[in-house]
Amino acid sequence: MSSFLIGEVALADSIAIENKDKLDVKVMYGDTVYRQSNEERLYDARNPKEGEEWIRVVVSGSKGSENLLDLKLRSSSGLADASRGCNYSLLITESSGWKLVGKDSGECTRSQNNYKPEAPHAHAYTVKNESEIPVYPAFAVEKDNDFSSDSVLGYLKPGGSRIYSTTTGYWKSINVIDHVQVGFYNPYTASYVKCSDKLGLIDKEREFVFTQDHQCEQAK
């Protein structure tokens, strides 16, 4: 497993998309469409080619007649400060808006938040990996410290992020309703790193970071 993970980490740019309404999504580098899908969860990672300085994400509404969202994100092509690539995560909904997690510094595109959930406990939870190793986001939902890892999108590469909400398919599948405990699974120590001591109420947007010293910090 370790050699597989390290090989995958070498990919430069990435985007993870939570698409609960199964809208049509196109991921383009430059003028080339590399992915087109209406899956609930979509992940794409690749090294941009010459001339592919921008990643464009185009989302069509359910009626298919017009674009619901058209985002232009900077790729790592030609950037001196993007050794880990430009890594993004995006939550898309048709009625509650969208949220982009980008970079807080450097030349990659910054985060943007246009997500206003209608459900009382549908706040967006963001997990980030600021370490040098790949880790798996993990959640406990029924009792404290009873973690299970995200087996759908799998590991979170260094520099990567991912957004979850009770409105999206994965959290529904593991029975997240209004409480959750967040952690990370470290495959090199075969252990979970917890971000809190117990289940917590989903009452606002929160962000959790797996740090360089392999601990978890709650950023907000």
Q: Which sequence of SSEs, written as H and E, runs from N to C?
A: HEEEEEEEEEEEEEHEEEEE
Cα end-to-end separation:
32 Å
Structural class: mainly beta
Strand order of the largest sheet: 4-1-7-8-9
Helix content: under 10%
Write the layout of secondary structure elements.
Blueprint: H1 2-9, E1 13-19, E2 24-29, E3 32-37, E4 41-46, E5 54-60, E6 67-74, E7 87-92, E8 97-101, E9 112-115, E10 125-129, E11 136-140, E12 148-149, E13 161-164, H2 169-173, E14 179-186, E15 191-194, E16 200-201, E17 206-210, E18 216-218
Parallel strand pairs: 1-7, 10-17
Antiparallel strand pairs: 1-4, 2-3, 2-5, 5-6, 7-8, 8-9, 10-13, 11-12, 11-14, 14-15, 14-16, 17-18
Concise summary:
With 220 residues, this protein is mostly beta strands.
